[in-house]
Queue: 3 jobs
Job 1
Amino acid sequence: MSNIDINNKYTKYFIPPNIQEAKKRGKQAVQIIDFEPIPEEMANIGKGKYYLIRTYGCQMNSHDSETMAGILEHMGYQPTDEENVADIILFNTCAVRENAEDKVFGELGRLKHLKLEKPHIILGVAGCMPQEEKVVNKILQSYQHVDLIFGTHNIHRLPILLRDALFNKEMVVEVWSKEGDIIENMPKVRQDGLKAWVNIMYGCDKFCTYCIVPYTRGKERSRRPEDIIAEVRELARQGYKEVTLLGQNVNAYGNDLDIDYGFADLLDDLRKIDIPRIRFTTSHPKDFDDRLIEVLANRGNLMEHIHLPFQSGNTDILKKMARKYTREEYLELVKKIKKAIPDVVLTTDIIVGFPGETEEQFQDTLSLVKEVGFDSAYTFIYSPREGTPAASMKDDIPEDVKKERLQRLMDLQNQISRKKNEQLRNQVVEVLVEGISKTNSEVLSGRTRGNKLVNFKGDPSLIGQFVQVKIIEPQTWTLKGELVSTQEELLDVAN
Ligand code: SAH
Ligand code: SF4
Ligand code: F3S
């Protein structure tokens, strides 16, 4: 990292990212730092002003946007959806694939005229993209209308960075390429009053050869169990119905703690809290142990949905990806999970067109998809990420072959998803009513324990309640149903 004193709150600085630093993993202990109160001169700076945050990444990234919103609202800013009204526009970006990055550059270009018309607007780029050198260089060169660049490790510095962006003429760049600390007690404005995200750990040490995340998010570091438990308790007290525990690799939770306490222990403690639904993402197959399966099999408020990315069904490709398991080991794990939780909903992530992937190797991916029978899958064409080991592997698969493989894979998965949903026909399922359907205002939508989206006719007063819905018309991605009974009716029967 640069030798500029980042603690000196009154220095102008230019701290660019450094990918070599970002990939180091030393023995340094993780520091747990409390969010500092907002400096006095910034406390009311946003009064009568508006902010807009655009979010491009994963759930972790979305949750970071909630933190940025929390910090901005602490400074008096109010939210808006209108670019024309906003005094500050932040792009919270994702670096995982090139098309995610292209979108952001497109948007930044589009906003140039707005900045010319309204020079007082602060335009900021945050999140995973700024952790890449090439991105910061490109912004410095071609997007000089950007005022502020910061990364994933210094969100808590937003008040200071914003102050400098407001009062300096030059672009403020502060990106820390370090292993990372844990910042506790940051303010948050959650987007939803029913479902909340809770970070249980940060970073990733897996270094899958295609993936940029370990470089943009730093090393694996777990929050203290007592902090997580306190946060979930507080959410339950506030009336939240569901929490989703977040980490790039939640099964590795606790490996870095100085106590003998892992993800299964955490779930076992959280299940005692009076919160109706607990989910988690993402699980890495490598660290998914028997104890965890045992705890999940107890159900209760632990939902029977596991997102278990397999990436490729071919052991040689898995080895080149450094996924640290074989096809057989993955299938064995699935078998164990299904035995313990027969109605488990399994979803996954798959990459096609990894460097050197042959048609036969791709066939192994198709056959694994068939063998497991996932409820749904996120499918991606491999995208080379500068600085990762796979980016220097020979990538000789023509683009049209990659696209055609993706299409075949999606066609197969859609058939399977449809079949899986068909099994729910005429079944009555528990649904947490989350809101009004996006496509029909007379229809409510909610999710099953397995995280499937259900649409059914009902009164909006049911939002936030658990209801029983009979599935009438299963489709590929959603289920159409009919309301059978509400929470209150069930309680009446019980009394
Ligand atoms: N930590 C999670 C997810 C990380 S990113 C996990 O390990 O499962 C989400 C998904 O994006 C990955 O599962 C992978 O399928 C995909 N992905 C990551 N890097 C990619 C790349 N370079 N090209 C294409 N897809 C990628
Ligand atoms: Fe990326 Fe692999 Fe870490 Fe997931 S486990 S974030 S795919 S390096
Ligand atoms: Fe993207 Fe960063 Fe998440 S790269 S997937 S926003 S961790």
Job 2
Amino acid sequence: MSEDNDEMVVTPWEVRGKVDYDRLVEQFGTQLITPQLRERLTRAAGGSHFLLERELFFSHRGLDWVLDMYDRGVKFTLYTGRGPSGEVHLGHLVPWLFTKWLQDSFDTRLYFQITNDEKFWFEQGLSFEKVQQLADENILDIIAIGFDPEKTFILRDVEHIDLMYEIAVQVAKRVTFSTARAVFGFDNSMNIGGIFYPSIQAVPAFLHSWLTGERTPCLIPCAIDQDPHWRVTRDVAEKIGYYKPATVLSKFVPGLLEGGKMSSSDPMSGVYTTDTPALIRKKIMAAFTGGRTTVKEQREMGGVPEVCSVFSFFKFIFMPNDRELAELERKCRGGELLCGECKQMLAPRVVEFMEHHREAREEARERVHEFSASRLREEIRR
Ligand code: TYM
């Protein structure tokens, strides 16, 4: 790999190179989740989550403040989202599963944004019809996670712009082109839809306050690639009369191929919710691992779980039991467990998970309206 390819680039639209999370936190100016803060969140939630314990959700902005408010009896809302540029992969599910845990634990509303405008503006060659079709399909994956229909509102930017535009207008006036260029790296070739877009992604952070007329804290769970949006959103929040939204940020589930990202340009690099069981098995058996070149070497020197995509899959989703994971790691490092065997163990777990997900996804087809943000139109306090 050339040095250029290895250089770390993390923006909301591109993740490239080897991600150094310590450097990223410094570059973005987010905070690390300390053991004390983790403990506070766990206590308030009434139980722990392995994604937090394993430091896969590892960084934040203002999470301590949200908990201060919560201790004083002020509840928060949740906000997360999806840009419908392709099928949903396992990486996307990670922040959503964590969001579901937060919704269940805190019994709170979730605003879920579907950015059908963003993906049309940012993806060359993607027609609006295709974006809409992907949005319809991606929404099934979201509903399949099991969010509470009474407390979950799926906002499609284009269809629900009437609920969003007033806030977007307020945000847009406070963000200069020079800020947008510096934060998002826009250049002169960016279409003006893209330049305006960050004001739309800011909106759901304030939507609950706008609807109810009561300033309400908002917590945004997502991977760290979205952080530049929250920097801008937090900067304008108080100027337009709202609380700064807080965030809780995860690392990325690495791709199955060497060097790492799940990328739609190489379908073998990720497992998608629409993959057949045979294809899932094939992808896992072809995955990059931390194994040695020969069985003899592996028996003698052991594997390297920290660079292994199979181990990451276990760690992020498929082995929530800490003891089981520690045992797997021990056997891998000790050369007791070979990569082939480990893959054989992972494949049925992924297939089974996906079968459940697919069933829930099919059932969701009848239930889309239950989650629609159209219901919010009746709530506008005016
Ligand atoms: P999108 O559709 O690229 O990603 C959806 C969510 O998945 C996270 N993510 C990952 N998490 C773990 N491992 C990975 N490999 C991985 N790849 C992506 C993203 O951080 C995101 O949380 N512009 C946004 C849509 C959006 C949004 C939001 C996202 C609108 N409002 C609020 C989060 C929160 C987008 O295109 O996300």
Job 3
Amino acid sequence: MERKWMKNIRKVVPYVPGEQPKGTDLIKLNTNENPYEPSPNVKRYLECDHKYRLYPDPTADVLVSQLATTYGLSKDQIFVGVGSDDVLAMAFMTFFQSEKPILFPDITYSFYDVWADLFRIPYEKQKVDEEFRLVKEDYYKENGGIIFPNPNAPTGILEPLEFIEDILKHNQESIVIVDEAYIDFGGQSALSLLKKYENLLVVQTFSKSRSLAGIRIGFAMGNPVLIKALNDVKYSFNSYTMNEASLIIGSEALKDQEYFEKTCNLIIETREEFVAEMKQLGFSMCPSKANFVFATHKEYDATEIFEAAKKEKIYFRHFNGERVKDYLRITIGTKEQMKQVISFFKNYMNKS
Ligand code: PMP
């Protein structure tokens, strides 16, 4: 029988998240999670009484207030969501309403074209150069909005503040979103440009630098006009995106700045040590300011290494795109885990 209703179904090619293998004795370096536990503040809260019977505060005030204090902003400059994926999806829906194409790099977070397709937003990908760097002049043309991560994913390459400001200067008529999922691992945030540019939205997450990927908290910082527009869309979609537990856990984690800095610095230190050892083994890597490195080796095939590592219960991320298929994205874990990764590589190279 012909299913006439099939034509009414939205057809999308979904984003493919990294594998979440089961088991405990794994070295899981495939989805850029933090290897350290969240701040002990979070645990203390989990042992208290909760008000799960009631709906959570739709304005997410406790979390928004703490974010305002932490980042020196006012509450009307902050929007929160269920991970930065939720915040970014809302931002695509809210800010990219033009008929002109939005612009983003061709090698970048692979969710951008999925959202653009889902919301029927026209887009044009801009080629990164030979060294995977964004080319700023490509973002001078007419557009319906701009988005890019800084540092970029999956390369880890950071652009300096002058680069971001240059893009903003050339794009006063559209909204520019800087996705700072990995900014806390050695980058300088574009937050300081908010005073000067009303069309800038900075998006960050608790998933990486605050070790809370499982709790799902993301946030956007920007001009109150942008934040109100985001909230209007959110309230037209689902008033209670943030659950009670995440509101409290997020605000408690923010209060522990010392722990946050300590764990970020540990990851930065581990990254630099790991990069030095990988170079000794003949790998080349993009200069990373994120909690992962993007590595390639002239003599060894990335897919084969990826499969061999998996057999040893070491998980990396591998992408099939033409320009990235020779690379592995390796999340920075604990020092001990990275040592095991280096021994795995040494063994692998001896055998092949
Ligand atoms: N932006 C970039 C560049 C990412 O790599 C990720 C992680 N997949 C996200 C946003 C979303 O992270 P989350 O939803 O956990 O905040």
